[in-house]
Write a structure and sequence with these properties.
Length: 482
């Protein structure tokens, strides 16, 4: 790969894409960053007003920091929690402006298709030897074709929000009536929401951030009201791990959101499933659905869907991807992050081996998009992904397989917190067997089988499965929890 004259194409110049470029540059490879936006990390600008619940120490990439320090850059306080604007100002913008990165960055370049040269989805032939072809739409409407030796898709999911409709499809009438993401209700979008009746659909951290801001707006502007719709019963709503949460700011956000509901400052609908959205003569919006299984109607002025995001796979339709049909992550990664299987535990360390697509060697999806529809992504996980991928592309398999990730516990178990035990104390018949002795210093959450931290150690597969992490030598059907 080092002798190949073609670049490694990186789709998306957000936090993970820029980190991928830093790692490739550090290893002497030639990246080409392609981003649809007019500025780097354009999606971060959409939520620039939001304060992150992870501190700086989890939001900067090691290779990017090494690159930035060459310019005299000073790292922010590792224990402070940046807003999206601060993440841009103090890290991402300087990184994109670094001469080594800026020379390889092309903005206004939207990738609309990826394939192999002279190979469509069906054709075999010398497919694995053919370079990748990326079709890139430029700002003036022209389409350019670029060849690459490898492709890392770090385009994220921000542009593909989940609908508020009950079936995974947009509800009839949803288009044009629903805003998505986290509007800046106290800033640039204040006029849109002040004095309005607002329905927020969704139960994750995006919804919590928005509801908290709207609650402040209620105090400032009479006539503003908030209705918060949960798709699950309120008893099943996940407001965080409290004192067991390894990210204190996330725990505090969940506690404040819970208080808003319990104090009646926000009207909660749970479980509420949206079936149809229609205009009414008064100019309001009528939202029809089922509340606890019975027909229910809500009349509001604004609807915001904070229901998460999903990957846009349409530009990749000519590639032979290996994706779990439900999670839309690679089959090796899907069982480790599937929200249908896991309600607790950290994001497990993983890298190139778990992210590869066997029928399309050299192609990877990294960052939030790699998680498909799972909502458990943390930025530090994306940094570890691209570090491992870059090492593999440079031929350093030892580094590619090594784990260099330290993460906090999520602390978001759906049930009561379970007692903590060491690996040694777990019986062989439990989640982690006695063969896991190489990581005996790492505490595990009983029943979740996840590490409190993992630092530069390889975790072998055990007879019970791949407890703690999934490595390349683990059986494909292995999973952390039974």
């Amino acid at each position: 790969m080092n002798r190949d004259p073609l670049p490694v194409a990186i789709i998306g110049a957000g936090p993970v894409g820029l980190a991928a470029a830093a790692h490739l540059i550090e290893r002497g490879l030639d990246p080409l960053l392609l981003d649809a936006g007019a500025t780097p990390a354009a999606s971060v600008r959409e939520w620039s007003h939001v304060r992150m619940f992870s501190p700086w120490r989890f939001n900067t990439d090691a290779a990017a920091v090494r690159l930035l320090r060459q310019t005299g850059w000073s790292a922010p306080d590792p224990d402070q929690h940046p807003t999206g604007d601060e993440l841009l100002r103090d890290y991402l913008v300087p990184l994109a402006a670094h001469p080594a990165v800026a020379a390889r960055l092309r903005l206004g370049a939207r990738v609309i298709g990826v394939s192999r040269r002279h190979h469509d989805l069906q054709r075999n032939g010398s497919r694995e030897e053919a370079p990748f072809i990326l079709q890139v739409a430029k700002a003036n409407g022209d389409v350019e074709e670029i060849e690459a030796r490898a492709v890392i898709d770090c385009s994220g999911t921000w542009g593909s929000p989940n609908p508020v409709g009950a079936h995974g499809l947009p509800a009839p009438g949803e288009r044009g009536h629903v805003a998505h993401g986290i509007p800046d209700a106290l800033g640039r979008d204040r006029a849109t929401y002040a004095g309005q009746r607002i329905l927020v659909v969704g139960a994750g951290h995006s919804a919590m951030n928005l509801v908290e801001a709207l609650a402040a707006l209620v105090e400032e502007v009479p006539g503003t009201t908030i209705t918060w719709a949960f798709r699950r019963p309120l008893s099943a709503a996940n407001f965080g791990g409290g004192q067991n949460d390894g990210l204190a700011a996330r725990a505090a956000l969940g506690a404040r959101a819970r208080a808003l509901v319990e104090e009646g400052r926000v009207a909660a609908l749970a479980p509420f499933l949206v079936h149809r959205i229609v205009d009414v003569p008064s100019g309001a919006i009528r939202v029809e659905g089922l509340l606890d299984g019975r027909p229910h109607v809500v009349e509001v002025d604004r609807v915001v869907g904070a229901t998460g995001f999903r990957p846009d796979l349409s530009p990749l339709s000519e590639l032979r991807l290996s994706l779990d049909p439900a999670v839309q992550a690679t089959p090796a990664l899907a069982p480790l992050i599937d929200p249908n299987l896991h309600s607790c535990g950290t994001v497990r360390p993983h890298g190139e081996a778990e992210l590869r697509h066997p029928m399309e060697p050299g192609f990877y999806i990294a960052g939030m998009k790699a998680y498909g529809r799972a909502p458990t992504f943390l930025l530090a996980t994306g940094h570890e992904q691209v570090r491992s991928i870059a090492a593999h592309l440079a031929g350093d398999e030892q580094a590619a397989r090594r784990v260099e990730l330290v993460l906090p516990e999520t602390g978001v178990c759906a049930g009561p917190a379970k007692p903590r035990v060491s690996v040694k104390a777990v019986a062989a018949g439990g989640c982690c067997g006695a063969e896991a002795a190489p990581v005996e210093a790492v505490e595990m959450a009983s029943g979740c089988c996840t590490p409190a931290s993992v630092a530069t150690v390889a975790v072998p597969a055990t007879a019970q499965g791949t407890c703690c992490t999934s490595k390349a030598d683990a059986p494909a059907e292995a999973s952390c929890c039974p």
